[in-house]
Structures are given as structure tokens and as C-alpha cells.
Amino acid sequence: MAIPLSQEINALIQQLNRGQFEAVIQRARPLVAQHPREFILHHLLALAFDQQQAYPQAAEAYQHALNLNPKVPELWFNYAIVKTHLNDLVAAEQAYAQAIALNPQFFEAHGNLGTILQKQGRLDEAVASYQRGLRIQPQDARGHFNLGTVLRDQGDLQAAVQSYERAIDLFPNYTDAYNNLGETWRDQGDMTRAVNCYQQALQRNPQHAAANYNMGEFLYLAKRFEEAIPYFETSQLEDWQARVLYCLYRAEQFEVFKQRRDAMLAQGPHTAPFIATLSTHYSINHGEPDPYQFCPDGFSFVYHRSLPELAPGSPLLTQLLNDIAQADIAERKQARLTHGKQSAGNLFKRAEASFRALGEIVKREFRSYHEHYKHADCALITHFPSALEFTSSWYVKMQTGGHLDAHIHEIGWISGAVYLAMPKTEDEKEGAFEYGTHGDQYPQLHDRFPTRYIKPAIGDIVLFPSSLFHRTIPFQADAERICIAFDLKPATPTGFTRSDY
User: Is 0.85 topped by the overall pTM?
Assistant: First the structure.
């Protein structure tokens, strides 16, 4: 005797509530085949696939359910989350819009829509979406947190601080908000407040990855290298292994450094620019071949050309200079910069058309860079990313006496700058871009670390491996030097979970 469909559905609901997702899938599939017009079966199957992170199958099941019953806002909401996991941001945006159209008070949908817009760099729209959600539910701590992240991207650091603080007021154990608040204070140069925030996060969650990483970064910048190592090792975040190597090297623990570097060589392709910097410096210091093959001869991979769109007097150049002068962007404190200002936030994510246009030009030049060096046999090229994102982009304005000490961009793959204003100098080197293999007070056993330089003209772009040290040579001319700098790195998957909101 066949079991009634209603009993089958009740059994599936019970299994779903018990977390027996594979059992639900195995039981629901034949039922869906027998009853293809039964909405609840498709919905239960979608939820089970979703919980197992089988997102393509979940999306298909949600779509079948929506075809049968398109009037359920929560269904559109869940479908949007799955499409975000699949990096289909257009479909996700449309699904959130459908959920909101069906239920305009659905504040979680407004919030998640904001994250989709933010991921696409549509920051003004993201702010508006977050604010709509907060007007509906002003006690939503996650909404205030998300608003803080987009305000920080826009360079409005003080407003970001207020949003993070409001999130913490509403949820005092909000470790992510403490951490991000600390990063925002750090961007403003207030390390006392920044460290206090990291410590507040770690008191609540000693394993918090980002707070551990940020504490490690603070300690190594304070030259407390051995204290920093346990924080990086606890974080296991991003380039933590490179940060540990950095601390060992700066502490002049050369033997331990070499042992740990050599252990990493067998772990896979040599695709960490920061480790490449350290390995090259160690090898030059000790007169040994460099075994790390990210880009052993970085000098040969410096790309310099003129951009016709930025010729002197061109509309885009004029607009960029005007937007830099007029845009309300906070300053980010930069200890290596003398007689100058560096912007906070991420310029290429801002709404100004000039910054967006320049970002597209830079991406074009990045593709040209790859084409130019495509036959090179090193990880920089053989593992060249097919999709990239700007980890950051910022302007640097310098006045008379301005210079920037030698450093690297630890989180980049390719770094670069576009030059919008250059001082005229009698000395060819003044104000020039210098690149080399030493900087950042790395320990030197001798001074045989080579350097080269480029004197860019207005409208030039320079791209180079992020493993190279670089600096601006001081200049004395009574004029401004303005450039927009940036880092490009392999794009990370556009992940999204319900905990994001």
C-alpha cells in the first residue's frame, strides 16, 4: 500500500529539521519525479541541497519551486543567496528585488541586496540599500556593520566608525565589528584605539582570525617580531605563513627562516609575492641561488608605457585631477610618506566616473602586461590570474621635499601607478620611481642590493611584480607630484552566507 503524499512530506520535514539532508535528497528525488507540480517537494529538496552546499542543484530546485509559486518572498531570498554563492550577481540582485517587491518590509533582503551592490562596486546604491533596511529595523546590528564596511570603502572613515560603534552598542559581543572598528582606527593612524579594539575582539573570541592577524601586524610594525608570530600562526589567514617568515627574517633568525622557507617550497607552486621578496633578499644577503620561482628576475618584469587617454590636457586627466581635488575622501595615515597625503578607501570602487574609467584602463593594461610577458617561465606568468580584483586603489599627493620610503605591497600580485602630475626637475632622479630588492629595514649583511629607476611622465603607467621594493626619490621642485596607485590580485570567489547579514 502506497504511503500518502502528505505523510511523505511530513517525514521529509522531520528529516530536514533533524539535519538529515542526504536522506531528504534521496527520498525527495523520486517523489519530485512522481509529483512534478508539488511545490513543497521542490522547496524541501532545494533546502536540503542548500544545506549541503550543493549550490547548482539547490538553484535548480529553487527555480522549480518558484515557477510553481512565485509569491513567496523567503523563497526568492534563499534563491538569491544560492545565486550569490554561484557568483551570479545579476540573478541574485533580481531575486532580492523580487523578495522586496513582495514584502517591502523585508529588511534582511534590503541588507543582502546591499552586499551584492557593494561587491559590484556600486557603493552609493549599497549605502542606500543598507539604509533602507535600517529604517525598517534600526536595531539590526548586522545592518550597521555592513553600512560601516561600505562607508570605509568610500573613504568616509569617521562615518564608518559611527556605524561599527552602533553595531557594537546593539550587540556587545560583535567580534567582527570590534575588529573592523580597529582597522578603521588604524587607517586614521590611531593605533592605541585600534589595538584596544583588536583586544576586545580577542577577549570574546581568542581564535578570531582577523583580529589575531591584525594584532600580529601591529606587533611586527612595532618591531616586536617574536611576539607577533603566535598571532599570525593562530590566524591561519591569507598570507600568514609569509608574515611568520617576515618576523623570523626581521628578527635575524636566519636558520629558522631558511628551514621554514625551504619547507614551503614543496607545498605547491611558488605564487606568494611576499615570500618571493623575502626569499630574494635572503639569497642576495647570503650569496645563494634563490629557490623561490615566483619571479626571480623582477627587474625584467617592470612595464612602463604612456596612456593616450591621459595625455596632458586630455578630458580624463582633467577630470581625475578635479575629482581628486574635490572628492570628500579621508586621509589614510602612512608612516613611510613624507610631505604628502594618501587617500583612504578604494578609489576604483567610488562612484566618480573618472575613477571607474581609469580602473578599466588599468585592467586593459594588465591584460597587455600578460600578453607582453606570456612566454616567461615563472609563476608570475604561468599562474597569471584569469580574473582579478583591486585589493585597493588610492591617490598619493606629494609636495616639495616629498618622498616615499622603500616598501612592498604585501597583498598584491601586480602593483602599479598612473601618474597625473609630475614636478619638473633638473636632476633626472628627483621624483623618480625607484625599484629594487631591498627596503623596509630588512637586515643587510652587505650593500650589494641593486636598484633601478624610471622617471615617469604625465599620463604614464608603471606595472611591476608586487615582490619588488619601490620608493619615490625625494624632489625639491615647487610643484605637486600626483599619482593613483593600486594593487591587483587574483579575484576571490564571491562567497556569501546567511551570517553575512
Answer: no
DSSP code string of 82-121 = HHHHTT-HHHHHHHHHHHHHH-TT-HHHHHHHHHHHHHTT
What percentage of the chain has pLDDT greater than the value 90? 85
Under the phi-then-psi rule, with left for phi > 0, alpha for psi from -120 to 50, and beta for the rest, what region is 155? left
Confidence tier at 234 by pLDDT (50, 70, 90):
very high
Average pLDDT, the chain: 93
CA distance 247 to 233: 12
Alpha-carbon distance values, 8 to 4, 35, 40, 66, 79 (Å): 7, 12, 11, 21, 24
Residue 390 to residues 114, 117, 152, 278, 405, Cα–Cα distance (Å): 20, 16, 15, 23, 23
Q: Reduce the DSSP state of residue 455 to 3 states and report it.
A: coil
Contact 303, 454 (CB under 8 A): no
Which neighbouring-strand residues pair with 461?
305, 418
> For residue 49, what are the domain limits?
5-159
Dist CA 310 CA 320 (whole Å): 9
Which pLDDT value is given to residue 2? Answer: 66
User: Cell numbers 635575524 label which residue?
Assistant: 252
Q: Does residue 280 fall inside a structural domain? A: no
- Residue 188 in domain: no
Structural domain contains residue 255: no
> What does the CA dihedral 151, 155, 160, 161 come to, rounded to 10 degrees?
180
Q: Which three cell numbers stand for residue 14?
A: 522531520
Lowest mean pLDDT of 6-10, 248-252, 305-309, 326-330, name the range.
Answer: 326-330
CB of 398 within 8 A of CB of 466? no
And the C-alpha cell for 158?
A: 569617521
What is the average pLDDT across 325-344?
87
Give the gyration radius of the chain's Cα atoms.
26
All three cell numbers of 87: 557568483
Contact 414, 464 (CB under 8 A): yes
CATH of the domain at 324: 2.60.120.620
Within a domain: 186: no
* Collapsed DSSP state (helix, strand, coil) of residue 297: coil
Final residue of a structural domain among 115, 143, 159: 159
- State which of 139, 159, 179 marks the end of a domain: 159
Give the separation between CA 149 and CA 271, rounded to whole angstroms. Answer: 29
pLDDT above 50 (res 245): yes
Amino acid residing at 354: S
Closest CA to 393 of 319, 329, 465: 329
CA atoms of 258 and 248, how far apart (whole Å) = 9
Distance of alpha carbon 262 from alpha carbon 244, whole angstroms: 14
Q: Are 24 and 4 in contact (CB under 8 A)?
A: no
Number of domains in the chain: 2
